[in-house]
UniProtKB/TrEMBL annotation, chain A:
<keyword id="KW-0813">Transport</keyword>
<protein>
    <submittedName>
        <fullName>Amino acid ABC transporter substrate-binding protein</fullName>
    </submittedName>
</protein>
<keyword id="KW-0029">Amino-acid transport</keyword>
<dbReference type="Pfam" id="PF13458">
    <property type="entry name" value="Peripla_BP_6"/>
</dbReference>
<comment type="similarity">
    <text>Belongs to the leucine-binding protein family.</text>
</comment>
<dbReference type="GO" id="GO:0006865">
    <property type="term" value="P:amino acid transport"/>
</dbReference>
<dbReference type="InterPro" id="IPR051010">
    <property type="entry name" value="BCAA_transport"/>
</dbReference>
<feature type="signal peptide">
    <location>
        <begin position="1"/>
        <end position="25"/>
    </location>
</feature>
<keyword id="KW-0732">Signal</keyword>
TrEMBL record, chain B:
<dbReference type="GO" id="GO:0022857">
    <property type="term" value="F:transmembrane transporter activity"/>
</dbReference>
<dbReference type="Pfam" id="PF02653">
    <property type="entry name" value="BPD_transp_2"/>
</dbReference>
<feature type="transmembrane region" description="Helical">
    <location>
        <begin position="6"/>
        <end position="23"/>
    </location>
</feature>
<keyword id="KW-0029">Amino-acid transport</keyword>
<feature type="transmembrane region" description="Helical">
    <location>
        <begin position="225"/>
        <end position="250"/>
    </location>
</feature>
<keyword id="KW-1003">Cell membrane</keyword>
<feature type="transmembrane region" description="Helical">
    <location>
        <begin position="30"/>
        <end position="52"/>
    </location>
</feature>
<keyword id="KW-0812">Transmembrane</keyword>
<feature type="transmembrane region" description="Helical">
    <location>
        <begin position="188"/>
        <end position="213"/>
    </location>
</feature>
Amino acid sequence: MNRRPFLKLTSAIAIAAALTGTAAAADTIRIGAVAPRTGPLAGGATVTQWPSIELWVHQVNEAGGLNVDGEMMLIELIEYDDQTNPGETIRAVQRLATQDNAHFIIAPYGTGLNLAAAPLFDRYGYPQIAVSAITDQQGALAEQFPNMFFTLGTTTALASDLVDVLEGMRDAGDLGNRVAMVNVADAFGIELATAARPLFEEAGFEIVYDTSYPLGTQDLSPVINGAAAAEPDAFVAWSYPPDTFGLTEQAMIAGLDVDAFYTAVATPFPGYGARFGPAAEGVLGAGGVNPDSEAFQAYAAAHLEVTGAEPDYWASATTYASLEILAQSIEAVGLDRAEVSDYLREATFETILGPISFDENNSNAAFWTVGQWQGGVFRGVASRDRDGAVPVILKDGWE
Amino acid sequence: MEILITGLLLGGTYALIAMGLNLQYGVARIMNLANGEILVAGGYVAFIAYTAAQLSPLLTIFIVAPLAFGINWLIYRIMLQPLVTRAKNRGQLETDSILATFGLSFIGVGLMLSFFGGDYFSYSFMAVPVELLGNSYGANRAISFAMAVVICGALYIWLNRSRAGLSIRAIATAPASARLVGIDVKRLSALAFALGGAVTAVGGALISTYLTLDASTGVVFTLKALIIVIMGGVGDVRGTIVAALLLGVLETTVATLIDPGLTLAAAYVMFLGILLFRPQGLFGKKTT
C-alpha cells in the first residue's frame, strides 16, 4: 500500500475537522445528551427524555439562542445512545467531555445510569441536573458529588405520600384496611417496596399480599390472581412500563375489585390513557402534574407541535424544567461550569412547574408524588409544595 | 386446574415465540439471532393496522405472513446463502450465521426505531374475560393459544405428510445425504427459513394483543426462543411444543404456589436439568 496519499488524506481530514471545530466553537454552545435510544429503558426515554430535549433546543434556537455575556449563541446538540448500558453511558460522557468538548451535558435517563455517570460529571466538573433519578441517598450523593442536583423527589416521598393518600381515603370511610402490594424485582421496585412496607404498617394498614416478580415477566395473571385471592381493598404495584400495562390489563380481565388501584412508572404516560380509555378512570400512579396550569398547557401544546408526541404527566415537564434551569444559569453567569454550579446552588428558577430552588442536599423540595386518571387526564393528587392538587376519587370498576 | 390452564395459555405464547426459530435453526441451520426483531416487527404491523384502520390482528396476520415470508426469503437468499455455500462444516456455518444475524438484529432495531420511534406500542384487543371451567382468562390469550394450536398442528401435519415437508425433515436429519436422493437442499432451506420467519412474525402479531412491546424488546424473545428450542430438541416440532407447554405450566405453578419472584429461577433450573440429562433436548436425536 502506498502510504503517502493515505497520510495526506488523513491530515486533510484532521485539518478540516479542526477548522470546523474552531469555527463552531465561536458561536455555538455545545450541549451533550446521552440517554437510551435502545435497550430496556428506551421506551421510557422516548416518551420522557428525548422529546423534551428536542423541544428545548428547538425553542432556544428559534428565539436566537442563549444570551452569553451579551452575545447570542445557538445551541449545538450532540446526542449519544447509551443502549441502557451504564458502561456506554460512562463512555459517552467521557467522550463528550474530552473529545466533543461539550460546554454542558444533560443528565442521563434513569436512576442507575445517572449514578453510573455521576463520578465522571464530577471529575470533569460538569453540573448534573438529574431528573429521573429517584433515591433516598440524595444527601450523601450531593456530599460526594457537589455538582449533582435532584429534581424529581425521593423514594420515601413517593411511597409515604401514597400511604398518606390511602390513609386519607380510609379515614374518610371510603377504603378498607387491606392492601395487596407487589413490586418488580429491580432496584427501583425493591427500594420502593422496602420503603413502603413499614409506612403501611405504621399507618395501620394490613398487607395481605406481598410479592415480587422478575423484570420482563410475560404473564402476570398469577400475580393478579394471588392478589385477588387475598381480597384486598387497595392494590399497589411498584412497577415498570411493560408490567404497568400488563398488570392493569390482567386486573381488568380478572375483575380485580378494589377501591384504590396504583401502578407506578408509565401510569402517567399518554399511551396508558389511550390504551385503557375509560377503564383508566381512577387509576393512581406515580408522579402527576397540574394539567390546568397555563405553563403546562403551553408546554404540552408546543411539545405536540414540535415533536409530534404528547408529554407524559410527570417527568416530561420536570425534564424540560431542568433544561430551563440550565439555560437561566448560563444566561446569568456564562459558560464557566464552576460558576454555573455555584449559581445552581443559590438561585431560584422560574420554570413551567413553578419556582424551583435547591436545598442544602442539592434537592428540589417541591415536586409531585401521586397522581390519578380523572376524566381522561392524569392529575396530581398529592405533592410536596406544589399547587393544584385535586381530591382523590375511588376506583369504581373497570367499565 | 386454573394453574394448568393459565400455564397452557402461557405455553401457547412460548410456542409461538419458538416455533419459527426451530424451523430456521433445525432445517436451514441458521441460528437466527434476529428472530426477536422479526417478532417485534410483526407486532408493529398489527399495532399500526389496529390503531390506524381498526383492523383486527386476526386479519392482519394474513398480511404479515406473506410479507414476512418474502422478506425472510430475501434475507436468506442475499445474506445467508453465501455463508451456507462457503461453510466447510456445520460448526463454521453456525459461527458465521450467529455473527451475521447478530448484526442483522441491530439493523432490525435501527430500522424499527427510525420508522416507528422507540415508544411503547400497546393497544387493547379483546382484553375481556372468558370463562373456562369456572375461572376467567384473557380472551386475547385464549385466541392466541388457539392460533398457536392451529399453526403448530398445520406445521406438524405438513412436515409429516407432504412431500416438501418430508424433504425438509430429511434435510434436518442429514443435509449431505438429502442431496444424494434428489432433494433441492438450497431451495428447501430457503423455504424453511422464510417459513420460520413468517411463523415468528405471525406470533408477534398475536402476542402484541396482550404484551407491551417496543423496538428494543426483540432480544428478550430471541433468548426465550433459544431456550425452548434447545430444550425441545433442535429441528423437532413436537419437542418445541412440549417444551413450550412445560415451561408455561412450570412457571405458572411456581408463580402461584411458591412465589412469582422465582419463575425465572425455575425456568433455568428446568433448562439446566434438561441440558444435564438430555443434552440433545427432549425429542432430539443423539448426534452420531
